[in-house]
């Protein structure tokens, strides 16, 4: 499979209280075009830093070493004429869904306009076509009554509905890569499952590559074909989902699996082949 991007010796450090904090250390990772890859690890392991680095959204103060090489021919589409860019454009080629949809949605702008704006900016559509696209997207993310929903404001929606709108805005320009950074972590279990299923469907319909960032190994296993496990800024293990879940090589991955004891522990244990 073609690599959409190749990460080589990527290191990222932030400055905090006058000293440097290493958030990522010498990461090497290829992401194949069209794959669904999960990045997992506990809080502070560097998952968001990796997602932001890939999207080109790290703060200017971050010290970045190494490189990310993109297969730019993968980004050509009728809407996006090939150009001499060496990196994809965030918002157009890369869609990003954050944990908190309220932070990515403008509270004083109707949601239809927010989605249409993305289509106008990146696809060069006029307002009527951009609104038509926004309506279709609201239908695709299964917001009830999409025609009326175009005129609603974020505060009129539930957390799950807001996240659906944020997803619609993230895919409005037809990105090749969708990054979901803890996109379901703030939602209750049922809504979480619905959003995971929605992401799976949209990614498959649009042929997108998915980077799914989560601290939840069980959720990651539901969605991803491969899982990369991060700890203290290092990539400790990467492999096919079944391998990582059934035969983890690293003690830390085993600990993450063992820690996943709760209401949904049974399917995870069954998948891991436990007898009792
Ligand atoms: N803007 C920043 N300035 C300073 N330090 C930061 C910044 N962003 C992250 N860090 C630090 O970098 C390290 C990695 O953070 P990062 O957010 O990438 O981890 P994470 O695995 O995504 O954690 P979480 O799930 O809690 O967001 C942590 O020590 C964090 O405190």
From TrEMBL:
Predominant localisation class: membrane
A GO term for molecular function: ATP binding
Topology class, membrane: Peripheral membrane protein
Keyword check for Transport: yes
Lineage, top ranks: Bacteria, Pseudomonadati, Pseudomonadota, Alphaproteobacteria, Hyphomicrobiales
Family matches, as PANTHER family: ATPASE AAA-TYPE CORE DOMAIN-CONTAINING PROTEIN, OLIGOPEPTIDE TRANSPORT ATP-BINDING PROTEIN APPD
Organism: Mesorhizobium amorphae CCNWGS0123
Chain ranges of the ABC transporter domain: 7-257
Subcellular location: Cell inner membrane
Name of this protein: ABC transporter, ATP-binding protein
Superkingdom assignment: Bacteria
Gene3D superfamilies: P-loop containing nucleotide triphosphate hydrolases
PROSITE patterns for this protein: ABC_TRANSPORTER_1, ABC_TRANSPORTER_2
Keyword entries, A-Z: ATP-binding, Cell inner membrane, Cell membrane, Membrane, Nucleotide-binding, Translocase, Transport
Entry GO CC: plasma membrane
Family classification: Belongs to the ABC transporter superfamily.
